[in-house]
Amino acid sequence: MKKYRKALIPLLFVLLIPVMAQCMGHRPQRQPNEPTPPSDSGTAPTWQIVFEDNFDGNSLNQSVWYDHDPQWLEGPKPGCFCPPMVTVKDGLLHLWAYYCPQWLPEGYEYALGLIKSKQSFAPPVIIEASIKGINAETISTGFWLYEHNLQLWTEIGIVEAWAGWDDWGTLWQGGLYKHSPEPKISDHKEADLGYNIADDFHTYKLEWLRDSVTISVDDVVVRQTYNTGYLSQAMPVLLSVQPYPGWLPLPDPSCLPAEMQVDWVRIYKQQ
User: Fold this and answer.
1) Which of 133, 140, 181, 214 could form a disulfide with 207 if both were Cys (CB 3.0 to 4.6 A apart)?
2) Given this model, what pLDDT does residue 69 score?
């Protein structure tokens, strides 16, 4: 299937450029592009920025990002991660979702955008991004980390949210997970923000320390817990849009195309 996927991606890109250009004609109002001062923990440590991408220019900086996931090439079937669904324009990253089964390998229906950092990060670290969520039924806004190797498979969901689904539009959702080895841990939480995450840009921040994990939205803490030790391995950062087949129904094609927008990503290390 990978051979057909590679052959179809250039054709898909050519066919979708006009629609993307039309959708990106009006840039939304954004929050000021100013750093969020990292919160202190314990004895007021000093934090230093070690990574920043403001998505300037007209293409993804492929020296620091993949435009796909090398560990999960195809994606959540019938969704397919496709590099043409990742665009950069007017200082924003755009991650697209399209319904286009005619241009995808057999069994796939949705073309999806994802980026993954080439560098991995371990605690103590702060990771934050300014994001305007996707509004497309059961297509999620995703800002997360994971690492899957022979010894350990862990994941942190900084935000996993569905702005266009039922009455979930105002909910932040996220979680801490150990998928293997046994015993598995699935620690999923939610909080009502009082606004739809697709209406404007909001800053999602993970403060990941050796002994604690704190997640905030616009500097309001939505999750804080102990790091009991399984969240210790270095993990890359991902931003994505995707359906969750088997858990939620597939989105109606009429709600697509749609996009998630990212203004900036910043990462701090403790000195």
Assistant:
1) 214
2) 95
Residue range of the domain that includes 175: 2-24+45-270
Number of domains the chain is built from: 1
CATH of the domain at 156: 2.60.120.200
Q: Residue 193 domain-assigned? A: yes
User: Residue 6 pLDDT > 60, yes or no?
Assistant: no
Buried b (16+ CB within 10 A) or exposed e, 194-222: eebbbeebbbbbbbbbeebbbbbbeeeeb
Q: pTM value?
A: 0.85
Pull the structure tokens for residue 268. 């701090």
- The pair of three-digit structure tokens given for residue 215, joined into one six-digit string: 């997640």
DSSP summary character for residue 42: S
Q: What is the pLDDT of residue 24?
A: 41
Max CA-CA distance within the chain? 57
Residue 28 scores a pLDDT above 50: no
Main-chain dihedrals φ then ψ at residue 108, nearest 5 degrees: -110, 140
Count Cβ atoms below 10 Å from residue 135 Cβ, excluding itself: 20
Length of the chain measured in residues: 271
Q: Is residue 31 part of a domain?
A: no
Q: Is the pLDDT of residue 30 over 50?
A: no
